[in-house]
Design a protein that fits this description.
Elements lengths: L1 H34 L4 H28 L11 E6 L5 H20 L3 E8 L2 E7 L6 H5 L14
Helix pairs in contact: 1-2
Length: about 150
């Protein structure tokens, strides 16, 4: 039952966008009929409305395209992030600590729960969990810690 609830939650925005698209297309068909009327004032207003509806439909189609990508079942899981200093001695350990602080601040800014799993010199392993529908895993897999508004390509 929980799996059905998650699937419903994932599909609900797509269904709402589809219903909105149907309404826009029906309005567009009705407005095009008005644009062919004999009244020049009515035809002019209808043509302006047709242009507005066509823009709205194009924008809505751009929103629908990414929503059609199949949902990965792992997206709802917590993200486990391990940061290692690697080779480089103290400098690598300092960089790893800075990187850990960046990810921690990013998670705190989104009000995620942070659980430290283990920590040693130059190595930190922690789990980030998101209480919201959009999970930590999907955001962190492509998130740049230095530029939080930019995403890395896959």
């Amino acid at each position: 039952m929980a799996a059905l609830g998650r699937e419903h939650r994932h599909l609900q925005p797509l269904v709402e966008m589809g219903n909105k698209l149907q309404r826009y297309e029906q309005e567009l068909a009705e407005t095009r009929e008005l644009a062919d009327s004999d009244d020049p004032e009515m035809a002019q207003e209808a043509k302006a409305e047709v242009a507005r509806l066509e823009k709205s439909i194009a924008a809505l189609l751009e929103q629908i395209k990414p929503a059609l990508v199949p949902h990965d079942p792992l997206d709802d899981r917590p993200a486990i992030v391990e940061i290692r200093g690697g080779t480089g001695g103290d400098e690598a350990a300092i960089f790893a600590a800075d990187l850990f602080r960046m990810y921690t601040r990013f998670a705190e800014g989104r009000r995620w729960r942070i659980e430290m799993i283990s920590q040693s010199d130059g190595t930190a392993c922690s789990a980030f969990q998101s209480p919201r529908a959009r999970a930590a895993f999907i955001l962190l897999q492509r998130q740049s810690p230095c530029f939080p508004r930019r995403r890395r390509s896959i």
